[in-house]
């Protein structure tokens, strides 16, 4: 049975912890090492004129295009936060055709721009399009509650009940309130809960203490799930990367 390999990573705009160094080139290398079929990315810098001037090797392309180059043939980028020097948001990189995509504003308040990036992909081993949703939720719990209700309604409206679904990203759910709700309301399972009994500790990357990042699935069996941290990762983003190997249910 074909295995689908997916990854989720908050890349912190291609900057190290505390924004001291540009690390987007190292992030590109690490993502290629993961060799995932679909990559869900958060805090992707679409444009930043100030950093392009500050860092000599700042890529001329938007980060999602730079990171995908030569490996992932299709990309989608959802611009969420817009400011004087540029913008950032979520992105999905895929080895399979992205049939359609949309970016939905799910901001809970005016001071924190958040989006839901929803792609439909043609995966040869699946008999219908795969729905892939990339998220970065609010920092405050009230905002996250509002967002999860909107996300749930979006999925009910636009994703068939029998369609394969992967939803991944930075959920900021440090109190672990979401897994039971998403399981009961939408039939979603978190990959680390399925394999290890609880969501993975992913933040901060140097010494993970909080389970902020998640990969939820529907219509798949979870073959394995892994957190990527340690010497090769801790000098990059403040988040650890997550990967999972999935088999159609």
From TrEMBL:
GO biological process: GPI anchor biosynthetic process
PANTHER family: CALCOFLUOR WHITE HYPERSENSITIVE PROTEIN PRECURSOR, PGAP2-INTERACTING PROTEIN
One MF annotation (Gene Ontology) recorded for this entry: catalytic activity
Cellular-component GO terms for this entry: membrane
Residue span(s) of domain Endonuclease/exonuclease/phosphatase: 8-239
Alphabetized Gene3D superfamilies for the sequence: Endonuclease/exonuclease/phosphatase
Organism: Parasulfuritortus cantonensis
Entry protein name: EEP domain-containing protein
Lineage: Bacteria, Pseudomonadati, Pseudomonadota, Betaproteobacteria, Nitrosomonadales
InterPro entries for the chain: Endo/exonu/phosph_ase_sf, Endo/exonuclease/phosphatase, GPI-anchor_lipid_remodeler
């Amino acid at each position: 049975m074909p295995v689908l390999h997916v990854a989720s990573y908050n890349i912190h705009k291609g900057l190290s912890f505390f924004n001291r160094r540009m690390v987007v080139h190292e992030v590109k290398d690490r993502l290629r090492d993961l060799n995932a079929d679909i990559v869900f990315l958060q805090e992707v810098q679409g444009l930043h004129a100030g950093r392009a001037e500050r860092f000599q090797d700042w890529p001329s392309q938007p980060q999602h295009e730079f990171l995908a180059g030569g490996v992932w043939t299709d990309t989608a980028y959802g611009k969420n936060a817009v400011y004087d020097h540029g913008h950032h948001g979520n992105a999905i990189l895929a080895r399979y055709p992205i049939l359609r995509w949309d970016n939905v504003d799910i901001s809970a308040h005016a001071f924190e721009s958040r989006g839901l990036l929803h792609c439909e992909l043609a995966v040869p081993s699946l008999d219908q399009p795969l729905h892939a949703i990339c998220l970065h939720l609010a920092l405050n719990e009230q905002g996250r509650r509002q967002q999860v209700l909107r996300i749930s309604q979006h999925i009910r409206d636009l994703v068939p009940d029998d369609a394969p679904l992967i939803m991944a990203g930075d959920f900021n759910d440090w109190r672990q309130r979401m897994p039971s709700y998403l399981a009961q309301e939408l039939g979603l399972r978190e990959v680390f809960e399925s394999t290890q009994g609880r969501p993975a500790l992913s933040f901060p990357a140097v010494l993970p203490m909080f389970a902020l990042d998640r990969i939820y699935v529907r219509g798949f069996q979870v073959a394995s799930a892994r957190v990527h941290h340690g010497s090769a990762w801790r000098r990059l983003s403040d988040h650890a990367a997550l990967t999972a190997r999935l088999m159609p249910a």
